[in-house]
Amino acid sequence: MSRRGEIEELAVPSRPVLSHSADAVRAAGLLFVAGILPADASGKLVGGDDVVAQAEHVFGELGTILEAGGAGFGDVVKVSVFLTDVRERPLVNPVRQRVFGAARPASTLVEVSALAVPGARIEVDAVAVVP
Amino acid sequence: MERREYRVAGQAEPISHFTDAVQAGPLLFVSGIVPVDEHRELVGGDDVVAQARRVFENMRDVLAAAGCTFADVVKVTVFLTDVADRPLVNPVRQEVFGETRPASTLVEVPALVIPGAKIEVEAVALIPTT
């Protein structure tokens, strides 16, 4: 018997459709959030070449997607952060501290050579528990 | 919560200290899949579309070992050595996933473990109830 009925795909209207992907998928009490790029609904880069502005947008969108899935930053158990320049980590950390507050998710951060939106310097995906 | 490791017939011997997939309760965590045959020989030459097809064929077999299909996949992470190949890989994804849209992350990486490999994909799936 398929579990498909127990899998809920979320599509958030403000999010760009960059590939064959949902914005998040809920299954087994968890919310799997797709990689979030600093892009508007049309897929256009947001934040110019400023990684902090890009990060603000990405984590703002993460908040929106979590809310759409019935969760919040305090429910996030894991994030993966992809930067095109690992030296920008200290610039991104304050944004993370502000949005997560007292919550500390498990985290992986690596540098990658490019992201799907030209000019993007950060991509973040997440797993959260759905309360 | 049940933990069960899957080593799948027809899949190459894992190149490091891991197995093809691990069940954790209702979820199946699928290791990064590369375009290789059971002898770990590259499949698809330098054609990223042919490589992608092999990756998803391998993924289908790993999923099937745990009773899953592509419709049960909730998350994929796609690693490409050239992000410009994304438009070539998307049709393959659409073909295999059909109406299913897993959450997805895609990044470009400088290299993969198998020389010549242009794509690696990992996944998380929800295991069907019996």
Rg over CA atoms of chain A: 14 Å
Strand coverage percent of chain A: 25-35%
Specify the structural class of chain B. Answer: alpha+beta
- What is the helix fraction of residues of chain B, given as a range? 10-25%
Task: Outline the low-pLDDT stretches of chain A.
Answer: none
Biggest interface goes to:
A-B, 33 and 33 residues
SSE arrangement of chain A, N to C: EEEHEHEEE
- Overall spatial form of chain B: globular
Percent strand of chain B = 25-35%
Bulk shape of chain A: globular
> What Rg of chain B is obtained from the alpha carbons, in whole angstroms?
14 Å
Specify the number of helices of chain B.
2
Content-based structural category of chain A = alpha+beta
Please provide a written account of the structure.
The complex is a heterodimer of chains A (131) and B (130). With 131 residues, chain A is of the alpha+beta class. Chain A is built from two helices and seven strands, in the order βββαβαβββ. Chain A has helices at 51-68, 89-100, and strands at residues 8-10, 24-27, 30-36, 76-83, 106-111, 114-115, 122-129. In chain A, strands 1-2-3-7-4-5 form a six-stranded mixed β-sheet, with helices on one face. Chain A is globular and about 40 Å long. The mean pLDDT of chain A is 95. By secondary structure, chain B is α+β, with helices and mostly antiparallel strands. In chain B, strands 1-2-3-6-4-5 form a six-stranded mixed β-sheet, with helices on one face. In chain B, helix 2 links the parallel strand 4 and strand 5. The longest helix of chain B is centred in the middle third of the chain and has 18 residues, at 48-65. Chain B is globular. The relative contact order of chain B is 0.24. Chains A and B meet through strand 2, strand 3, strand 6 and strand 7 of A and strand 4, helix 2 and strand 5 of B. Strand 6 (114-115) of chain A pairs antiparallel with strand 5 (103-108) of chain B, so a sheet runs across the interface.
